[in-house]
Design brief:
- It is a single chain.
- The protein has about 325 residues and is α/β, with parallel strands linked by helices.
- Helices cover about 30% and strands about 20% of the residues.
- It has a ten-stranded mixed sheet with strand order 1-8-2-3-7-4-6-5-9-10, with helices on both faces.
- A hairpin with a 4-residue loop joins strand 2 and strand 3.
- The radius of gyration is 19 Å and the shape is globular.
Length: about 325
């Protein structure tokens, strides 16, 4: 079975989204665009439908999912929302901020991976919001890729990975942020950053009045956060990070005609394939699609520029570390 692909790039189509909403209500899987990456959605209140997400992605069952809602009030359907939670929603929703909160009993354990908490966000994308609204249920949705692969920022990448594993793909064009949402745990005395993402730590610090608690080396694989326990975002060829100039020694054995480079700074060696971005936001927006394109081009090794950690740079560092197989630890 191949997925039905509906083009929603020209605007929100009631007919297409009503069809997709029906698929969700009946236990099916629908891929939809968000402002960060494409999500693989199922009815978050239907445990069997949620298990299909794990099967389609090949995702470990102990990796919790993010629940997407169409309005801030919808969070109360799945989580116990604190005063701080309401304030954060008012400031950052809709947008790429996921809040980890105590879960309501109605949430299936397949969503929470057996934890007492649930991750919730409201995406800033008209197609996503209208789909969730029409479905009438919260939607559990990790990134719409095979587990471990670069996250999809366009429908082509989704079809490559999941085209024969889902009922429907909504094509909304390229995503705007390009890296997943920031995950913030607000169950403790102080908010804790579990995963950097589309909302910068600087913005959170300014709002909270303090810097969120950052994970240490062991806490970096915190079970509470989706997408942090396993290698993610990896291309099918070796990826090395340009953390310093010693990287050139690691790739010098590869023929220059097979080398690829992606980043902001110009490479310091000979590469056949080069993707340069004007700034860190563009780098984040284009990283995953660049990795997939370089795979298709025939590159046998990729070097990725190491960005500064300001703004979205911290999230970009996290994704690059995981894509290269390294462990992430904020500096």
């Amino acid at each position: 079975m191949r997925a039905k692909i509906l083009d929603v790039r020209l605007g929100v189509s009631d007919e297409a989204l009503r069809e997709a909403a029906t698929v969700l209500r009946e236990g099916g899987l629908v891929v939809f665009p968000t402002e960060t990456v494409y999500g693989l959605g199922a009815n978050a209140l239907d445990g069997k439908a949620v298990l299909r997400i794990f099967e389609a992605k090949g995702r470990p069952a102990d990796n919790p999912l993010i629940v997407h809602v169409a309005e801030a009030s919808g969070a109360k359907r799945v989580a116990f929302v604190s005063e701080l939670g309401h304030l954060l929603m008012e400031r950052f929703w809709p947008g790429p901020l996921t809040l980890v909160m105590p879960a309501c009993p109605v949430v299936p354990t397949s969503v929470t991976a057996g934890l007492s908490t649930v991750a919730v966000r409201m995406p800033a994308q008209p197609v996503a919001l209208e789909l969730i609204r029409l479905a009438g249920v919260p939607v559990a949705a990790p990134s719409a890729n095979l587990s471990g692969r670069p996250s999809p920022t366009d429908a082509r990448a989704v079809e490559e990975d999941l085209g024969d594993r889902v009922e429907m793909i909504l094509d909304g064009g390229p995503t705007q942020v390009g890296v997943e949402s920031t995950v913030l745990d607000i169950t403790g005395e102080k908010a804790a950053l579990l995963r950097p993402g589309g909302v910068s730590i600087e913005a959170l610090e300014e709002f909270l009045g303090y810097r969120p608690i950052l994970p240490g080396a062991e806490e970096a694989v915190d079970r509470r956060s989706p997408g942090t326990r396993y290698r993610h975002y990896a291309p099918r060829v070796p990826l090395f990070l340009r953390e310093d100039e010693s990287v050139w020694e690691k790739v010098e054995t590869w023929d220059p005609s097979q080398r690829a480079y992606v980043g902001i700074r110009s490479p310091g060696a000979s590469f056949a394939f080069v993707h340069l971005f004007p700034d860190v936001e563009s780098y984040a927006r284009g990283l995953f699609s660049a990795l997939r394109e370089l795979e298709r081009s025939g590159a046998c090794v990729i070097v990725a520029d190491w960005p500064g950690e300001a703004r979205v740079g911290l999230a970009l560092r996290d994704r690059l570390k995981r894509a290269s197989g390294g462990s992430y630890m904020p500096e």
